[in-house]
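lol forgot to send this yesterday, sorry. struct tokens for the thing we talked abt
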């Protein structure tokens, strides 16, 4: 296993979230889902290119020529959701046995997660006073247990629960909260679809692209509105962090990326063609 830095050669592998072990850019023919996944990854890659000069970085794990996992991190000052200083925050981390989005487990590569986290710690230990990480991303079901092996401890501040590793004394961050300002509207005889999405995770543009296509299929039955919330200005304007809504409601059974089939089944319930 080899750990590589984030650069032009590895950026798509990182942006694919689970690592580009499918080789999407190198395949001569892609399925519809693969085309959408690659397009979503390119949106994420554009965001990465914008954030790298600001201090964002990542380490990508390779097994042979295949990317199998990564860890992405940045100074907390770049976060839209946390107030703090002298800290780095882990945005996301995946490893071979626990892909995100509820997909099937892949064959585990022992030690991959440990090597990624160790590489990240080595990279930032002289740049900050500590590292924080949220719960709930794709690496492991037992984040407390895994990260505690590397000196991380749980903390809570203003209802914000995270893990922190201190290199020296440092204040934990506090949350940035946004007040919803966007007013959902209903149009008689139509389904109004609103999506608030961020480039930070490819799951969001994957859903965006599928929603665009399906709403076109339904034609005048749907009104489609999309809002990119990549920065604090947009978050302050709308006050909604992420999600796809129909007539102001969240009708999906999952918070992961939405397939076209899922979207069609939900929109049929709101369409006069199918009622």
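and heres what i got for the seq, position by position
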């Amino acid at each position: 296993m080899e750990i590589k830095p984030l650069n032009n050669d590895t950026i798509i592998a990182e942006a694919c979230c689970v690592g580009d072990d499918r080789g999407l850019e190198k395949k001569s023919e892609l399925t519809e889902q693969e085309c959408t996944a690659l397009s979503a990854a390119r949106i994420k890659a554009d965001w990465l290119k914008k954030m790298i000069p600001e201090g964002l970085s990542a380490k990508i794990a390779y097994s042979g020529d295949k990317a199998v996992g990564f860890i992405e991190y940045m100074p907390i000052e770049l976060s839209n959701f946390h107030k703090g200083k002298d800290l780095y925050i882990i945005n996301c981390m995946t490893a071979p046995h626990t892909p995100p989005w509820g997909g099937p487990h892949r064959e585990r590569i022992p030690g991959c997660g440990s090597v990624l986290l160790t590489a990240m710690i080595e990279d930032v230990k002289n740049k900050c006073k500590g590292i924080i990480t949220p719960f709930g991303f794709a690496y492991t079901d037992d984040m407390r247990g895994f990260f505690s092996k590397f000196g991380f401890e749980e903390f809570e501040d203003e209802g914000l629960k995270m893990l922190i590793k201190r290199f020296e004394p440092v204040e934990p961050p506090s949350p940035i909260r946004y007040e919803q300002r966007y007013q959902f509207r209903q149009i008689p005889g139509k389904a109004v679809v609103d999506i608030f999405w961020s480039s930070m995770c490819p799951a969001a543009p994957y859903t965006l692209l599928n929603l665009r296509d399906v709403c076109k299929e339904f034609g005048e039955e749907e009104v489609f509105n999309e809002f990119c919330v990549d920065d604090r200005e947009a978050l302050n304007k709308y006050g909604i962090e992420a999600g796809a809504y129909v007539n102001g409601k969240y009708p999906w059974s999952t918070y992961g990326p939405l397939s076209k089939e899922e979207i069609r089944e939900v929109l049929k319930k709101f369409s006069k063609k199918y009622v």
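The first strand starts at residue 2 and ends at 5. anyway ping me if u want another try
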